Amino acid sequence: MARRGDTIELAVLGLLHEGPMHGYELRKRLNLMLGWGRVLSYGSLYPALKKMLRANLITEVAATTTPTSRRPRITYEVTEAGNEHFQRLMSEVGPTAWEDDNFDIRFAFFSSTDMEIRLRVLEGRRSRLQERLARVQGELERTQAEVNRYAAELQRHGVESVEREVRWLSDLIRAERGDESRTPAPGAPTGSD
Amino acid sequence: MARRGDTIELAVLGLLHEGPMHGYELRKRLNLMLGWGRVLSYGSLYPALKKMLRANLITEVAATTTPTSRRPRITYEVTEAGNEHFQRLMSEVGPTAWEDDNFDIRFAFFSSTDMEIRLRVLEGRRSRLQERLARVQGELERTQAEVNRYAAELQRHGVESVEREVRWLSDLIRAERGDESRTPAPGAPTGSD
DNA sequence: GTTAGCATGTAAGGAGTTACATGATTTT
DNA sequence: AAAATCATGTAACTCCTTACATGCTAAC
């Protein structure tokens, strides 16, 4: 039922989906991927890996050593069950999926899902942001408004950022829709911006 | 020493600085202020208020009742000690101050600090973001690059957003600097953007 | 040879959420 | 009269961070 903290699990499964990897490397990739903000610590990654091993979602692929006989590193690989679990988590489109972190992770692994899921996640995220915009703008009319210039400026900047993200999502949705078979790459220019 | 979790404390002191308020209202204002993401729950607000009462940072201003004799609400007020603590927290310019949440809170209450502090916080935040940009862009050259179009698009969008925030900060810094006595409001147009 | 980065882990603790519990007041 | 929203709280739990512990390997 995709609880809040399945984020690491999803991320690990997604990365291992691209090929076997050891813990240290997983952490680096993850931090690069979501590095805009919180940084994942060993204290949460390694226990999570252990837990996933016990749950049979991943297996140790024997300790590998690079050419020059380094310290053996424990390389992990997804199992069948792990892949199924990954697919299930990715398909579970619900409130948790639109939250910042969860959305980012899901988006990063979009290549491993169907367009149908992609569209639902993108659209869900977009309406979530639009709701927030509406709520904040409505509330701004009732409250303060003029008092505290800095707080107001922060709000203004926040609204602008969210509006930008909404446009970004709209472009992506449009790209997905017009993608039936042409595949013009998600980063391709689409007119706006 | 401004630990991570002093965020609520700082926020509460900052809001009460503008006038007495009761818990429920504090929560609403806080969520509106930082509402772009996590929402503060009663389970963290009320215990925090209790803790601040014990620490003598705030006092109960007797239960107020509105005209129509409503259920009494416990209204809080900052104490002398509370104001001192607030000023000290705001002046503590250090790594914790540039983190997303902490920065936002500090920025929102900039009116209650000196320009010197404001500049240090703005500049600190800016260099932090620039470091992140440099690190990510450097790392992007070594890793993947072409594999996984969606992950790449997420990175691109992330970089763009951070670059925007850097420009925003630069505008604010410029405004502060040229503010010696003219005070052109932080949201005033400054050329870029 | 010593610093920096690679590599894996554990234990304790912090901060905050969820769920529970209660009840008044306003709106529909 | 019911539903929504105001209003205050507590207890259990979760996730994660910090700090500790260990040792290898590459570069300077």
UniProtKB/TrEMBL annotation, chains A, B:
Keywords: Coiled coil. It comes from the Bacteria. Residues 119-160 form a coiled coil. The keyword Coiled coil applies. Residues 12-87 form the Transcription regulator PadR N-terminal domain. It holds the Pfam family PadR. InterPro entries: Metal_resp_DNA-bind_regulator, Tscrpt_reg_PadR_N, WH-like_DNA-bd_sf, WH_DNA-bd_sf. This is PadR family transcriptional regulator. It comes from Nocardioides renjunii.
